[in-house]
Design goal:
27% helix; 9 strands; 4 helices; alpha+beta; 197 residues
């Protein structure tokens, strides 16, 4: 679901087919890659006779896949990400971001008051609420922290936009993101992301 810039931006920008890596592909990656292939094939069929694909992926599977994917296909500005999935499309993330890279890409992104603490690679905690229906996804930042310091949502949204634009997919988070693979909708239940085409 490469829209997880939606689920992490929603789980997605990282949940995509990773390239070949030096290590063997773990079973969780095989599960994701098979799901992506099944969704691609269903999307290629189009029309009323297309194959219906529904899935449920646990937060443990998502985290395991994202660790593998980030090793196999490094992402600019992001070193690691861990998510917790809650009901009603609420997701909590703990992400290691290279704030120096963000400032190089777009000087002045980090407000002067936060620059002394948001330098180098730092882990921030961000909670999101997302919507993913009618083939489109969007998200809003509910709250964000570095240690016990609250980071304003508008700052986090700017950082997300800059990092997202640097990804190979060149996401534009200023508008709803198209859900990949012909997905019609995605939602969460306790510790699980579900979706269907």
């Amino acid at each position: 679901m490469k829209a997880s810039l939606l689920l992490v931006l929603l789980t997605g920008s990282f949940v995509r087919a990773a390239g070949p890596g030096p290590a063997p592909v773990p079973p969780v990656a095989t599960k994701f890659l098979n799901l992506f292939q099944e969704l691609r094939q269903a999307e290629a069929q189009k029309g009323p006779a297309h194959k219906h694909v529904a899935f449920a992926i646990t937060q443990t599977e998502i985290n395991d896949y994202m660790r593998y994917s980030l090793r196999a296909v490094p992402r600019p500005g992001i070193d690691s990400i861990t998510i917790k999935v809650f009901p009603t499309n609420y997701v909590s993330t703990f992400t290691m971001i290279d704030f120096d890279a963000v400032e190089r890409w777009r000087p002045g992104t980090i407000p002067t008051l936060l620059r002394p603490i948001l330098r180098g690679k730092k882990s921030i905690w961000v909670d999101y609420r997302f919507g993913a229906a009618n083939f489109r996804g969007s998200f809003s930042v509910e709250k964000a922290y570095y240690n016990d310091i609250r980071i304003p949502a508008f700052v986090v949204e700017k950082v997300i936009a800059i990092v997202a634009a640097r990804q190979p997919e060149h996401y534009d988070t200023s508008k709803p993101l198209p859900l990949p693979f012909g997905l019609r909708q995605m939602w969460t239940e306790n510790q699980t992301v579900k979706g269907e085409n």
